[in-house]
Write a structure and sequence with these properties.
The chain is of the alpha/beta class. It has 2 domains: 133 residues, Aspartate Aminotransferase, domain 1 (Alpha-Beta Complex), CATH 3.90.1150; 241 residues, Type I PLP-dependent aspartate aminotransferase-like (Major domain) (Aspartate Aminotransferase, domain 2, 3-Layer(aba) Sandwich), CATH 3.40.640.10. It has 13 helices and 12 strands. Helix 4 links the parallel strand 3 and strand 4. The two termini are 20 Å apart.
């Protein structure tokens, strides 16, 4: 049985160079970065160098980068601290955000008196920017807009520059979950006024359990986790030096190879779309995932013309073939409620058909796509 991994939107394999950097850190630099002796200073220097590397690539200042345990913590940190420290009374978002945002907003509504406003989405799963402006124009108290850059299930790309300009014109803060785009798209935070973003290393071939939040200098927030003075007093706790070094290495390699790997992965996505259209002509693509211009080059979300009874066996069939993909976000794998993303814009009839997300990386091959398409065609003909 082959082993084919097409679930890179859930997590990516760790690059060998990253593993080596983590192992080297664990073996040779075990000092606490907060210690003042040479062992601690060596670790502290590496942590600050990682911060500078990330900031320079994103067009940010090192002080604006705060290391976290990943994207979920970064989202929680920004939303909760913005309400507490910036006096945010209204959060404007969509029903298609990652649960790290949606559930945090629910909690802020329930316990902090915040009012949530959900921007309408169109038939392709895109936020309606006219509706966003309408909502913003009617709010007088402090507002935070939270919209993800690349949707983790359907891959739609948000026009962040337009959203940022809109937020600026109405004096609203802007946060974006960029977990699916950091490491896959170039950024220049000097050119786009976004106040907060979240990122996770394991989405671009780094280790799990480490990520960062970007917090713009003119939007000072106070401590999220209290205790020691780590992360300039903003996030207490001994820094996971080995993970931070791994994050830096993965981040550097992602941007060093970005152009070359993007061309390669785009080729895989185009090939997948072409071959599945040939094998199963009635296939549909959810959102803009089948559009190379309007969606990320890293994934497709396909809707297959199978009835409900047959759909129940689809993932099982693929798993038996050694093929890993997803029916939605990995964070909802234990849920039987279906995808909240697809439910936001598909019809009842469309939702009755099985949808699968296939996500790619430079580790994948066309031969793996051929194998997967053959497995899908075999299943469709049963």
């Amino acid at each position: 049985m082959k082993a084919v991994y097409f679930d890179n939107a859930a997590t990516t394999p760790v690059r060998g160079e990253v593993i080596n950097s983590i192992q080297n850190a664990l073996e040779k630099c075990f000092g606490n970065p907060s210690s003042t002796h040479s062992f601690g200073r060596t670790a502290k220097t590496a942590v600050e160098q990682a911060r500078k590397t990330i900031a320079a690539t994103l067009g940010a200042h090192p002080s604006e980068i705060v290391f976290t345990s990943g994207g979920t913590e970064a989202d929680n940190m920004v939303l909760k601290c913005a309400v507490r420290d910036l006096g945010v009374k209204h959060i404007v978002t969509t029903s298609m955000e990652h649960h790290a945002v949606l559930h945090t907003v629910d909690e802020l509504v329930a316990f902090n008196g915040v009012t949530a406003h959900h921007v309408a989405v169109d038939a392709n799963g895109n936020p309606d920017l006219l509706d966003l402006e309408k909502i913003l124009s009617g709010l007088k108290e402090t507002v935070l807009v939270s919209l993800m850059h690349v949707n983790n299930e359907i891959g739609n790309i948000l026009d962040l520059p337009t959203v940022a300009a809109l937020c600026e014109s109405y004096g609203a803060y802007l946060h974006s979950d960029t977990v699916q785009s950091i490491g896959h798209f170039p950024w220049d935070l000097q050119k786009i006024k976004i106040h907060f973003l979240a990122a996770a290393a394991h989405k671009f071939h780094g280790p799990k359990g480490i990520g960062f939040a970007y917090i713009r200098k003119d939007t000072p927030l106070k401590s999220f986790i209290v205790g020691g003075a780590q992360e300039r007093g903003f996030r207490a706790g001994t820094e996971p030096y080995h993970n931070i070094v791994g994050l830096e290495k993965a981040f550097m390699l992602a941007y060093e190879h970005l152009d070359k790997e993007r061309v390669y992965i785009e080729g895989l996505k185009k090939y997948f779309i072409s071959e599945i259209n040939k094998a199963i002509p009635a296939v549909s693509f959810n959102g803009f995932s089948g559009d190379m211009e309007k969606s990320t080059y890293t994934l497709v979300n396909v809707r297959l013309p199978f009835n409900a009874q047959k759909a129940q066996m689809l993932l099982f069939h693929l798993d038996l073939k050694g093929i890993a993909c997803s029916k939605g976000s990995a964070c909802q794998s234990g849920s039987n409620k279906g995808s909240h993303v697809l439910s936001a814009f598909l019809t009842k009839e469309q939702l009755a058909m099985p949808s699968l997300r296939f996500s790619f990386s430079s580790f994948n091959t066309k031969e793996e796509i051929d194998y997967t398409i053959n497995a899908l065609k075999e299943f469709s003909e049963k």
